[in-house]
Design a protein that fits this description.
This protein is of the alpha+beta class and 85 residues long. The protein contains two helices and six strands. The protein binds iron/sulfur cluster (SF4).
């Protein structure tokens, strides 16, 4: 298995602009409550969501994270635990 990353969504702080879902619709979708969800993401007790992504999907999700105006999308290197964004 190749490199993996943990993607995190601080959903409570999401303002529902829709940018992530436009850029990476296979990974991000808009919910009826006006915020975005990670597609098949895991709901955490604190309201955040998480999903492990593969290296091939890193660039696209990095672009989504960079597009977020309130910087609530984070990507962490699973090997080093280093926060990339
Ligand atoms: S880009 Fe950020 S603020 Fe906009 S919907 Fe996605 S997570 Fe929410």
């Amino acid at each position: 298995m190749g490199k993996t990353y943990k993607m995190q969504h601080n959903r409570p702080e999401c303002i529902g602009c829709g940018a992530c879902a436009v850029i990476a619709p296979d990974f991000w979708e808009m919910n009826d409550d006006g915020k975005s969800d990670i597609v098949d993401g895991k709901d955490m007790p604190n309201g955040w969501q998480e999903k492990i992504i593969q290296e091939k999907d890193f660039d696209l999700n990095l672009e989504a994270a960079e597009s977020c105006p309130v910087e609530v999308i984070h990507i962490i290197d699973n090997e080093t635990n280093k926060k990339i964004i």
